[in-house]
UniProtKB/TrEMBL annotation:
Catalytic class of the enzyme: hydrolase
Region named Disordered: 1-87
UniProt GO MF annotations: peptidase activity
Pro residues bias: start-end ranges: 29-40
InterPro entries with a match to the protein in the record: Chloro_Bact_Ser_Proteases, PDZ, PDZ_sf, Peptidase_S1_PA, Peptidase_S1_PA_chymotrypsin, Peptidase_S1C
Coiled-coil spans in chain: none
GO BP annotations, alphabetical order: proteolysis
Stated family: Belongs to the peptidase S1C family.
UniProt organism field: Phytohabitans kaempferiae
TM annotation in the entry: 94-117
EC number: 3.4.21.-
Name of the protein this chain belongs to: S1C family serine protease
Amino acid sequence: MNRSTDWEAANVTDGWHWHQPDGTATPATSPPSARPPVTPPAAGSPWWSDALGDPWRDPRAPAAVVLPPPRGMGAAPEPVTDPDATSRRGMTSVLAIAVFSALLAGMLGGALGYAFAVHEGVGGGTILGGNTGEAPSVAQRPPDSLAGVAERVAPSVVTVRAATSGGASIGSGFVATADGYVITNDHVVEGATGGATVVFNDGSTANGSIVGHDAESDIAVIKVSRPNLVPVEFGDSEAIAVGDPVLAFGSPLALANTVTAGIVSALDRTIQSGEPGGQVRYYAAIQTDAAVNQGNSGGPLVDGAGRVVGVNSVIKSLAADADQAGNIGLAFAIPINQAKRVAQDIIDTGKARRTIIGATVANTARNPGGGVRLSAVDAAGPAAAAGLRAGDVITKLDGRLLEEGTDLIALVRKYAPGSVVTVEYNRGSSKQTASVTLAADAK
């Protein structure tokens, strides 16, 4: 089978030789114009009326398909375009604009930086850190902030040095009056062979005389002669609560002007302290987690408003040797209501009164059944006057549970002579209540 293509005639055939109806052969390459015209049937004529002009009437007649002339045969070629060309040109423009903008911004930033540097007098040196404005001075801090409280209390805190037969003792203290009375711990000046040296927070010193001290309450008073003293503001130790913020001031480990912060961890914590064979001290203490170490003794414990609520006195430690003891987050302060009362007694009379209930406890250990059993009652004392007898078991004092003998001793010492307290006790199987008016020791 032969196929021929005549692009100039613009015909495509299947290669057959077809004949006109009259039998004349027509080559495949003959132009379609040689075909006889086909006359459409007249309107209303049957479909076969044009049978003589129908090329399909004869199965030997070839079919011809007429196509439009192909593009490119004598016509101008269709332009070819790159579909990515526009996108590349667009990206090129965007990149150019971005580079130009970056260069312009860099030049502008450099110019402004230079101008600011020259204006501030910095020149071309390297500047570390950012400019967040002028840092506030201490005076600009709120008075009730920790820094504000520390600034206000610090001028009233002192370091106390005393010479003893065994060497020297160092502790802390605070100015209680404008005329020079300073409160500290008894164990800071215990055994002093002379007076004491008081060092103020500005580094200046003054010689002080020991007015008096009370070993059992662990309070001592020193008198210095110095003008323009700033006394502390006293708070109320009965008004504080567990969780209140507190600051401890003093000279721990001889590091003067030290301030530590914490909270009130517990109240009326019974503490028994003292050297073996020496004076035994009992405290219904304020417990705090503010860091306190040796040298803090006698320094003030203040509340969030800068008012003194306690006198730092005792620390708990895991060390067996007191000289090696260090802070483990447990420190104890004498309530200021008790310390101030004792200090006032010392200033007024040279000695302190001791508060008593007029009874003796069976032992200072924990009672298996709870409460504190009285082994003896002074017939002329406050307990007897309230109807208590030996053998009674006191369970509460002013609502505070008693679990061992030291609890009763410490709580009684906390009150001033003449205070009336409510005592709950068991006598056999009956529970009873009594009001006891505490008294001062006759010593």
